[in-house]
Amino acid sequence: MKITDAKVFVGGPGKNYVTLKIMTDQGVYGLGDATLNNRETLPAAYLKDYLIPNLIGRDPRNSEDIWQFMYRGAYFRRGPIAMAAFGAIDMALWDIKAKLAGMPLYQLFGGKSREGAMVYAHATGANLEGLMDSIAHYVEAGYKAVRVQCGIPGMPAESYGVASAKEDHKHFITDFSGIRPKEEIWDTDRYLNYMPGALAEIRDRFGSELKILHDVHHRLLPREAAEFAKAVEPVKLYWLEDPTPADDQNAIKLIRQHSTVPIAIGEVFNSIWDCQQLIEQELIDYIRVAVTYAGGITHVKRIVDLAGLHHVKTGFHGAPSHSPVSMAAQAHLNAWAPNFGIQEYLVLGTPECDALFPSNHQMINGMVIVSDEPGLGVDFNEEEAQRYSYKPGSHPVVRLEDGTLWNY
To answer: What distance in Å separates the CA atoms of residue 38 and residue 238, rounded to the nearest whole number?
Structure first.
């Protein structure tokens, strides 16, 4: 069996999904996702110019050797661009392998550990009352876990993960349009003074059973993060996400010394080497890597296994930049992983997206039920893909009130 061709498609409804399709001489094809949010053309070019020419003629069943060839064969290793491209190829090869076996992908990992995987939604509001309304919407829809972000009094409305008063706070997605990034203003003192009390009110309103998650998005210094984590302990958060920039992993030690709040980190990590220290020293409780830009299924399985040895659960990244292809790959990993924790889930189930990526995966009462179709269980409509083209965008950037550039 040989790989005969591979194509890369960039575009989608409201997103620049980077979809890879690998074809074989037996008519079986596999799909992968190389979407790197707001840098989508870079992994696409890497795939077209460097990787695909090295795939032609290879046996797609040898996914481990191909992964090693891509990773070890690149003198300059890792990084989000390369790992996203590797990840797409690896997903497609696993898709082919499972289709050849006539099994859903999770069976090749060892079968299911659970019937459904709990997901969390994003609730937001320009103020606390708007956030409460957004949380109630998701609770009524059956979600058992909700990430909560709200506007801070005295701080401009445009801050991380927060809808303005004019936007739909029940289904808010950050606007990434335009090549020049939007600029947000951040004030740490206002945040520290307000957010612990707001989280306490949310807990009072919704009771002890709702799993409440909160994302600081790298905005605090280590001492500030330790202070905040200690202050919110009574709320019993399901997790506190990215309290400090992931660059300084020793910062998490300080937080651990002052608080027992569960910590989730890793959505910007690209390899097992990025999170090895945090996992082995048991400084985190949830690892947030994504199967896309952490090198695909082969590499993420290794991370999951390492995490399981150190009481760390999975909490894979699932922002709207992940296409239904990578979300399907993570659905199969979630069905299998003995140390599964929770899955972020923000793929918009629009008719346009469903037409581009037909699938029988289901979301029922805040749980993803994985499809039993062979392979990843998601397809790609090339004719539908012709409707879309690349539209440049950028993440916002953050400044303090005096103009100093800060962490996004």
So the answer is: 29
